[in-house]
Amino acid sequence: MRKPYLATDLELLTITPTSAVISWMTRGPRRAGLPQPIHAGTQLWLGTDRGQMRLVHDDPQPRAFHQVEVKGLEPGREYHFRAMSDGISARPTLSATTRVSSPELTGRFVTLTPPPGRYLMTIALANDVHIGETRQGIVLGALPTSVAPGPRQADYPQMLFTRMLEDLNTRHGHPFLVLGGDITYGGTRAQTAAALRLATSYGAQGGDWLAVRGNHDRPLHSGEDPFGEQFVAYQQMTQACLPSGLRILGVDTTRGSGGGWVLPEQFEAIRSYLQEDPDRPTLVTSHHPVTRDAALSSPAGPQFMLRRHDQIELQHIERSAHGVFLHHTGHTHRMRRGTADVQGAHADYFENAACAAYPAGYALLHLYSGGYLLNFWRTSAQDALDWDFRSRWQVMGLAVRFMLGTTNDRNHVALKDLSGLSAAGGEIPAELRV
Description:
The protein is built from ten helices and 22 strands. It is of the alpha+beta class. GO terms for molecular function: hydrolase activity.
């Protein structure tokens, strides 16, 4: 008997020490264009033994995008799960979720174990907000490579940015926010003003958040630079030093189109700044990924990335400053842990998915004296989930195969010596309380 709809795109999106977020969609078959959303109930079974799972979530409210957060789990423990919508089991479909060992395919996962030492603070990482964008994806005339917003979704970039800020305030204790570029879609004065208005609703630049420029934020053809006037000047690094002692360095990698560069004057400023205190724990952010590994693995190719010479020079500078432990980037709209090119590199390289498009979220970087724990989150607001359903089909549904990344890309622990930092004094996030 043919099923009345598909329960598909099963994702174990977020895994923390004490919780997990599982999502899926219900829709009609896709023949052309966007598939029809089918609204159904949401059920999730969970247990430490496959044969003894219990129903932990049962919501009869019909919806097309289903997302369940399960709390109260134990760190470092294996759990089994099964997601269903009114009797139909949800199945994974993307390459990252259909690997032999993927949790979505096996139906089991292990909660994270926090790094050793005391909890210090949390940093939020977000990028590719695209304020002013009107279609998501590559716009190639009439070809179905981009997705237009549906009714009441015209301002989806502002809606998603707003929902993220609400999440950070109400759910995650107002962490310092790092915006890794492409904050606007075209760098216009109106878009820049709207982006700044939203960012300052979160707090003060430098005190509550820091931003770098992306290729979409580049100066206008007229020579005007609204982004530079409101955020940071072209090819100028920016920095913040938090009360905990954490140093955050923002690098402008913007050139003139998709690819990027760092000009000699900025390199000198970066080198000088890091060598003032080379052992201070430092988080670096730039819009373009800075490794050959990222350039060669991106579907857009090396021409879309930072030029090769600048990749190597920046990695050498970071290697000489032993406190640099992580370099966060955006641009590719994907979740991915990368690999350094230079021998002896000690920093990790991480690409974060877009805020404005599927999987539409942000990362939380939890710092401990013995390392960090990173999780990717998407907001559970219904208007944001509705846009997730729609933007999933950009580039004929192919782009998301590269965007989601593996469970380990989205959720992982890294051991680092961050003992030079002091605790920020804030409350430990609920998902870290053991």
